[in-house]
Amino acid sequence: xxxxxxxxxxxxxxxxxxxxxxxxxxxxxxxxxxxxxxxxxxxxxxxxxxxxxxxxxxxxxxxxxxxxxxxxxxxxxxxxxxxxxxxxxxxxxxxxxxxxxxxxxxxxxxxxxxxxxxxxxxxxxxxxxxxxxxxxxxxxxxxxx
Length: 145
Description:
The protein has about 140 residues and is an alpha/beta fold.
């Protein structure tokens, strides 16, 4: 059990085992409820939408997920949703990036691609590639160290 857990995946989560390729938007939230201790907290900065026209079923298309809210209630878990408060550390992060102290692209497994490679990048992303794509139409992006 853990005191706190964070869902940084969001509604594009995929299943486990034989269903690994299938989108299962509530899988991370349900797993976090299982591992959080009684009275634990669950942070949810992972993106969830009010509607997803490309959702896997009618419920997902309107932003409704099969979350085991009863488990969270029984364990008295607290849920904290919304975007991360990035403005609290925005300047320090910017300065660290500008002075080559941190490399966000490397930490996020980002791959810089050209505008011509963008269609293939979107196809790879939709297939579940474990990387982020940054489209650099002018070839001016710095490479990660």
